[in-house]
Design brief:
Blueprint (H helix, E strand, L loop, with lengths): L4 H9 L1 H8 L9 H12 L8 E3 L3 E3 L1 E3 L3 E5 L6 H17 L6 E6 L4 E5 L3 H19 L18 H5 L1
Parallel strand pairs: 4-5
Antiparallel strand pairs: 1-2, 3-4, 5-6
Helix pairs in contact: 1-2, 1-4, 2-5
Length: 162
Amino acid sequence: MRISGTHVYYYFVCQRKLWCFAKAIRMEHLDENVQLGKLLDESSYTRDSGQVMIDETVNIDFIRDWKVLHEVKKSRAIEEAGIWQLKYYIYFLREKGIAIENGVIDYPKLRRREEATLSPEDSEELVLILADIEKICAQNTPPHVIDKPICKKCAYFEYCYI
């Protein structure tokens, strides 16, 4: 199974959402928040090269000097998920022999940045996370609803609650 950054991101946000995404149950195209995030991503940092798709698996917002990865996010609401997504990109590229030094999450609306590095411990943790993602995606039934405040703004809200 090819694990994308979205898989890793959803793993930290909601494992039910991860399962739906893996089963091609896609609701994002209907969600206003997702559309706003895409617009922000496309309109921010226009002087930097656009998104970079690698091995049809990871889609990096932009790379500076093939040393620093950048990921653009709308808000810090799910910051841990964004940090692990970026760590996964660093891990993925290092596994391909590309010496990425670190990553930066850019929040253009907030005019903030958050740096992310990948420690050896993070790499070990990622191996476990990737195995868990594969296990969740292989299940025949979705994980339980997490029922958290973030669910109200989720593209999958109707799928989970109606």
